[in-house]
Known about the structure:
alpha/beta; Rossmann fold; eight-stranded mixed sheet; globular
Amino acid sequence: xxxxxxxxxxxxxxxxxxxxxxxxxxxxxxxxxxxxxxxxxxxxxxxxxxxxxxxxxxxxxxxxxxxxxxxxxxxxxxxxxxxxxxxxxxxxxxxxxxxxxxxxxxxxxxxxxxxxxxxxxxxxxxxxxxxxxxxxxxxxxxxxxxxxxxxxxxxxxxxxxxxxxxxxxxxxxxxxxxxxxxxxxxxxxxxxxxxxxxxxxxxxxxxxxxxxxxxxxxxxxxxxxxxxxxxxxxxxxxxxxxxxxxxxxxxxxxxxxxxxxxxxxxxxxxxxxxxxxxxxxxxxxxxxxxxxxxxxxxxxxxxxxxxxxxxxxxxxxxxxxxxxxxxxxxxxxxxxxxxxxxxxxxxxxxxxxxxxxxxxxxxxxxxxxxxxxxxxxxxxxxxxxx
Length: 386
């Protein structure tokens, strides 16, 4: 089969990417390894066209337009043209993209079109308590109207998106995000540095980073050697051009400022080392679609604390494979961290159980099989009713 992913987020060296990019790369490499063809079509980070190959994955990065007012139109024309060219040379069976991705795509004969819900405009507008952009809302609904089939990475993102878009009768299949449990290996407990907390994610409010730094004030007297390492790119306040970092800085007291290390954006390949060296990984997100970063931590058997919101309980069984907490409450976050530090031997066993569950339910080889079965049913027109 030939699968074409339409995304701008496929990982590129020296450029940051999020969970969608990591997911597509993991699945794409596995598809190629199992004899399938994979093409990536997206807009480049720079004003140049480029072609790359990643372990057999063919990546077409189209030139980013300099005309900001009409770049959406120019980008759409370029993407459609490239898909048509690829399809002519090597017929595409399935085109897959995220919630907004089909809005401007021209459907070609012989190709099935799939949306995989990873959290779209409606979903995160609700999560971030910001208004709906009418234009993006229109495009998202238009995109769904073109889909031959819809996937979702969690029950929560499926049900929430369906409700927000008025698509309650939409048939959605749930396939969790895959984890490469070889790259995210069982960590060596002896390498963990005492009272070190690791956070990885975009520096923005919805990731819970402000509440995490505020929690340190309730812990610093008891754990004066505590260190919080923050890995992630700085971002703007959603819907604005104002940076979020100043808001975060205001939440950091003088008592704990010297205990926080901002690492900036680091390559995903460096993440396992940082996870291994931390005593605890804490990602208290306010909302996620299905948090790939959480799964990576648990795949390493590391003690993990996440936010008890959205699909949190689909990813973590609280007290059995990891820990969950109200991500909006710094006091409760501090209490959970204190409990983990003071009962670390028990927490280690919970981390080990976390890896077992990842292997059972999220391992790439098992998730790959579910995806390829889905693509084959789609290609053969079986169960394609939405």
